[in-house]
Amino acid sequence: MEKVLELISKEVGDAFEAAGYDRELGRVTISNRPDLCEYQCNGAMAGAKKYGKAPFIIADEVAAKLQDNEMFEKVDSVKPGFLNIIVSGDFARSYIVRMLHEKRFGVTLPGHEPKFIIDYGGPNVAKPLHVGHLRSAVIGESIKRILKYTGNKVIGDVHLGDWGLQMGLVITGLKEKKPELCYFDPDFEGTYPKEAPFTVTELEEIYPAASKRSKEDEAFKAEAMEATKLLQDGYKPYRALWHHILNVSVNDLKKNYKNLNVDFDLWKGESDAHETIPGMVEYMKSHGYAHESQGALVVDVAEETDTKEIPPCMILKSDGASLYNTTDLATIKQRMEGEHPEGIIYVVDKRQELYFTQVFRCARKTRLVMPETELHFVGFGTMNGKDGKPFKTREGGVMRLENLISEIDEKMFARIKEGNPEISDEEAKSTAHKVALSAIKYGDLSNQPAKDYIFDVDKFTSFEGDTGPYILYTIVRIKSILRKYEAEGGNVKEAKLGNPDSPAMKELMLNLTRFADAVESAAKDLSPNRICGYIYDLSNAFNSFYHGTKILSEADEYKKSSYIALLAVTLKVLETGIDLLGFDAPEYM
Ligand code: ARG
Fold first, then answer.
1. What is the pTM of this model?
2. Closest CA to ligand 1's atom 6
3. Domain boundaries in the chain?
């Protein structure tokens, strides 16, 4: 469906042409002086030089051509040569009615369904999920939903960190703690137990202890490295143990992500790349892409136009061991061969930007991807505490994601109970969780991904201002009015939208017509913050309308029906917006 700006620009372009000027001059934008007009065109200013005429003469001529046009309520030519445009109420109304008939409210859908893989989450097995992994999950989930909504096929892959030294550390730590386990008996010949020899809590204690120890104790570290190598080379007892670590960890991760409303299609990890590595290395060597450098195998990825040094991409270490790079490249090879995606999107901490520059260049140079394959790095900034330093617990430790969420859940529970003492604990709990998720996710997504931001619980959970709970509150307010309307015998589905009868109503309607623009721009730039900006503006426009309009007490049935219809569209659009951000609204708050 053509966007409002396109429709208006076409009409204004026609007028330029009819007046004897280039129609391209008719490009219209949203007004930056909303007190004067809704849309504006500066084409006469641009045309003045070309046509050797004063801009206001051109503007006058064009305005004259638009006087009887039904699309507009008013087109003014103002000095020195602007066109100030106010569209007609009927144009706004009929646009919204058409939007409702269209698929996805008029978002332009591609002719085919391009396939993308999105790599996000990226938790490390055996380490508890901490707030550092929150951003990847929240941003990735939203980008996935936005791309699906705009007509792409999207496969989300969690890409577990399940293959590096941390696995050797856990194995070695466990060996110290429980040396009697059969996995550590080289003479054991039976079958390994199905039950894991540890709980997730034990597992989460082993890793940090082992990691700390390895920094102080050389021998321990050497043993962990040896264990890692044995595991990667297929040593059976360690593979068996590794499966336990993976299962226990993944079960826990699934619970955590579910609680966050984050969902992956694939639960693959670095380890899945293992089988592909030897063939890929051979290929890179035999095609002359990779060469030896100080014993290691590398691919040069520097380019002439580089302004800073881009080091070579290391494929194998001098001891022949593979690295994070190697698993990522082999994963690209698998993804290309298995899924033939048009692009791969990585949502990872922006401190890994240089690393991904190397990996992407290497993948292109070695032709693991096609020249037209899109490789996107969505690097996100750090989530800081109020002190401007990376977010920590009150005691200064790493904050577990679980604890962060339950703290906010509890806070919201208390607030909801306070506001509605009659609400059952069960409902209050479910509502509190919805509100908490909106606070956490909107607080994050309303920033550009690359920006660091301050996680300010008080601000994020406020029911006023640019927050998730404010959006939910607006939605709940609309739901409550519609419920009352139906309780009084009205039928929301039969309500008919009329032309706006107040500036606030028109402003709300014009905001609604911009939905597809917002979603398309969020998809194009992989920026969920565009959706936040849009639904915040829409919520404000709705609340201004609401505060200035009698809705249920309106005596004129025609007007009342029109208001109800407008509320129903606003609700649909807001609910779609928050769904794209990855949260939903309760019935009451
Ligand atoms: N596990 C990694 C980390 O915690 C993130 C993985 C990102 N994805 C990737 N394909 N490298 O830093």
1. 0.95
2. 122
3. 4-87, 165-259, 401-581
